[in-house]
Prior knowledge:
By secondary structure, the chain is α/β, with parallel strands linked by helices. The protein has one domain (about 10-350): Luciferase-like domain (TIM Barrel), CATH 3.20.20.30. The chain has helices at about 30-45, 70-80, 95-110, 125-130, 135-155, 190-200, 215-230, 250-270, 280-285, 300-315, 330-350, and strands at about 10-15, 50-55, 85, 90, 115-120, 155-160, 165-170, 185, 205, 240-245, 295, 315-320. The strands form 2 sheets. It has an 8-stranded parallel beta barrel, surrounded by 8 helices. Helix 1 crosses helix 2 (about 70-80), helix 3 (about 95-110) crosses helix 5 (about 135-155) and helix 6 packs parallel to helix 7. The protein is globular, with a radius of gyration of 20 Å. The model is unreliable at about 1-5 (pLDDT under 50).
Amino acid sequence: MSITNHTGIEIGIYTLADIGPDPLTGKTITPKQRMNEMIQAAKLADEAGLDVLGVGEHHRLDYASSSPAVILAAIAQATKHIKLTSTTSVLSTLDPVRLFEDFATLDLLSDGRAEILAGRGAFIESFPLFGYSTNDYDELFTEHMELLLQLNKNERVTWSGNFRSPLRNAEISPRPIQKKIPIWIGVGGTPESAVRAGKFGVGMGLAILGGDPLRFKPLVDLYRKTGMEAGHSSEALKVAVTGHAYISETTQQAKDEFFPYYSNYWTYVNRQRGMGSRMSRADFEHMASPNTALLVGSPQQIVEKVLHQHELFGHKRFLAQVDIGGLPYHKVAKNIELLATKVVPVIKKATSK
């Protein structure tokens, strides 16, 4: 069911590989099954003509993906066309040389499809794991980003900073197929992050998980203004938007089917963050209402929401997270199919003008 269409905005899916119990059966799948299903979903997305596939990084037993580059390398062998990105790589606690070389290797394995979305991460478990202090949260990210951009530009690098040993004419190998690996910064909602992405002149990936998307417009404007003032071209200043999505034939059906899983997802994410709150059906109905960013509904409802966001942000890419809360694989596959066949063609047409 290929619908490859290169006009209009890029549309894809991403996963954080959370491993939660299915709220309807109580069963939790193994990390091995989760991995197999991620590869199946990637194949399906590729065959359906989606543009991008992302895999996130977490260092916890309730997630299956501590190494996006390794998972994406496996996916590269099972797919042909889809771009392969991290969503996100926790750059504060990754060695930039290791990260770059891993994704340059992925670029060779995938015939030039690798990208990096770097962020500071929603969790901080990687800091003690790799011997870093959360006191250096911002400084680590900035320094590592500066080095990553140099590695992407030059095959030999001389560099020194505060958090790792200096490089003296170091050979950075292998070089990717692409002239440069596309690099983005993931932004949650702070003006500082938007300014940083603009100054660096890299793409900005905006995570909009709920609420009125209008509140993110100042961040996009700030990013573009900062980037232009720093001398970067408007082509370099690309915006991507990511969000949670669940699609069914009707909006009511989508809400009825997705509520147990979405409530379940936030129950365990909040528990991971030390909060005990549960989502009520009324809360969910409010979160999924027509003027919000949560993409739950019929294909038409999803199209309207994505196009509304596009009017606000003029973004070049949209990624949907379609596999959270213990959702069984057959529902994930149906989600991908409806996205590719009913939503993508309409959005591509509307945004290719």
